[in-house]
Amino acid sequence: MTPVVVVFVLALSAGTLALDNGLMRTPPMGWLAWERFRCDIDCDHDPKNCISENLFMDMADRLAEDGWRELGYVYVNIDDCWSSMQRDANGRLQPDPKRFPGGIPRLARYMHDRGLKLGIYGDLGTHTCGGYPGTTLDKIQTDAQTFADWGIDMLKLDGCYSNATDQEQGYPLMSKALNATGRRIAYSCSWPAYQGGLPPKVNYTQLGEICNLWRNYGDIQDSWSSILNIYDWFFTNQDIIQPAAGPGRWNDPDMLIIGDYGLSVAQSQAQMALWAIMAAPLFMSNDLRSLDSRSRAVLQNKGVIAINQDPLGIQGRRLIKEKSGIEVFWRPLSDGASTVVFFSRREDMPYRYQTSLKKLNYTAGVYQVYDVYQEKPLPSLKDSTDFVVSINPSGVVMWYVYPAKQTLSDGKLYGPARRHHGKYFAPPTHL
What we know:
By secondary structure, this protein is an alpha/beta fold. The chain is about 30% helix and about 20% strand. The chain has 14 helices and 20 strands. It has an eight-stranded parallel β-sheet. A six-stranded antiparallel β-sheet has the order 9-10-11-16-13-14. Helix 3 runs parallel beside helix 5 (about 105-115), helix 6 (about 140-150) crosses helix 7 and helix 12 runs parallel beside helix 14. The chain is globular and about 70 Å long. Residues about 5-10, about 10-15 and about 405-430 have low confidence and may be disordered.
């Protein structure tokens, strides 16, 4: 099947209706507290790292001042353990007064003043996973209006201490309640993760109509084995979950752990590339105040970000799984372009993998190739010409591939006219 035909088929299969709030037409990007900072509430002894308004203000400053915002990282998301243990006298959730003395509205204004957005956490159950007040069915409208009044831009609704019946009612009800507030609040649902992630218990058509993104699977941990576990589930089940994704509705394999403690540079590049292939949300969970330069380079790679943010919004697929431990992925992009990722699960040494674009189902012709991590163009390739890529252990080679000549609206022939936030990630080549 040629890439053009594949794009058409994938676009048809991605015809699920999206939540009608106009948000997240490309995968959302930002920072999320949970994996790195968990439920640290000991501000007396660990003031720098505890879940408090100071932590989120610190991260907002870094996003706004260190080049992240301009790349698309605009959400600052609070996770569990932010609230008081009791609702207020009016039955509304309230933040812990010691750790959030300014209140959530002031924190939201702090984000908005810096061109950022604030996300918050709730749980469709009697309690959150951390034991704080949950959002039972009778509190859905109250909590939705509270979040809107506070200036919240995104809600992640977890599913601890709930049951299948409550989830079946509650997740759609919260979607309606958020829309009814009149404030555009992006909606992240954990519903499928609590129902095994697969049909018949999970209805991805319905999810696309009520949620902007959803957690399909378990929480990520700070380890390479955790990434492989998540990645294996997603690509083993790609025929089921891939068609569900598209503009405004995304499968969410969980956070980026790049810059924490568990990954090598090669593994960091691999997570970023595979998340881009999956058109996954890019929520970092790390300490931006002390991030090392190599992790920063991976997370700020404009080529990977542009691929992740491609407006076509089609989630990529695994094409090949070799006995040698090499796997090949492909994702169609706008303007007839595509991305190919060569991934090594080996642990011994760099592996030289030989193939051709023809073997990867490319149409006959000549193609230009841009190496995303080396940040340079490679010699053009004829589809039938064999080539060799050297892939580091637990690493990737990521290519952006486009026809050698393409005519754009002005009648001229161009090369990699790929834009991200108004800027080329590869210099245009006039042929």
